[in-house]
# Entry
Amino acid sequence: MNQSLEDQIARLRWYHRMELQPGLWTPGSMDGGKRLASIGMPDDLTGRTVLDVGAWDGFFSFEAERRGAKQVVALDSHAWDGSDWGTKDAFDLARKALGSAVGDIQISLTDLSPATVGVFDVVLFLNVLYHVRHPLLVLEKLAEVTGDFLILETHVDLLDNKRPAMVFYPGAEFAGDPTNWWGPNPALVEAMLRDVGFSEVKLYSQTPTASRMACALFREKTEQADRSVVAQQGRAVFHALK
Ligand SMILES: C[S@@+](CC[C@H](N)C(=O)[O-])C[C@H]1O[C@@H](n2cnc3c(N)ncnc32)[C@H](O)[C@@H]1O
# Structure
């Protein structure tokens, strides 16, 4: 018996909230649509090739395709390999339901190279950097597969520190997630991107100070977090050109 799309969606675990048919949404906790403006994905990607590194359920891959990209490849490992983060079933169902031609490749970031994936005009590296144990090594690999333009979004820390610096989070210290390793500050992300070969790097957006302060106060009240530490943390998006 054919299951309805609604039933198939309900059977799976979702990260991204996406509309697969008019009015039919996946129940993910991450609303990519709300992040689009802060990421600054070009409105028109006509004729461009796009690699979405750490794509998970593929919201940003499908969005790049919707914006006219001629080829989009979604890349992931942890979230697709059936270990603790889940499987690729949700990505596969979304692709089918959307009638999408987005390609996929299941490899680890450490195996990224022009030989394994090719070179793409635009590379998306959204909320992955802080999960990476060896950030500079992986940024070197990302630079090799970026033909023109990289959009990098990451958790950031030490925001009052203007010198390039990064916090190491041992164990599950940051947000209870043992895969969160690093909290770089914007000066460090910019310096690393230049170091690995991007000629122009700019901070495109960053969590506003007022939001950080509000979050710090809230977490101090609700979980006795150190307000001065939390106030230094946020999200930032960088645009980098080869
Ligand atoms: C926080 S999620 C971000 C998902 C999506 N890019 C977004 O911004 O909504 C991090 C993603 O990076 C992937 N990831 C983490 N480490 C990886 C690695 N070493 N190789 C490939 N993918 C990795 C995870 O599987 C997960 O899909």
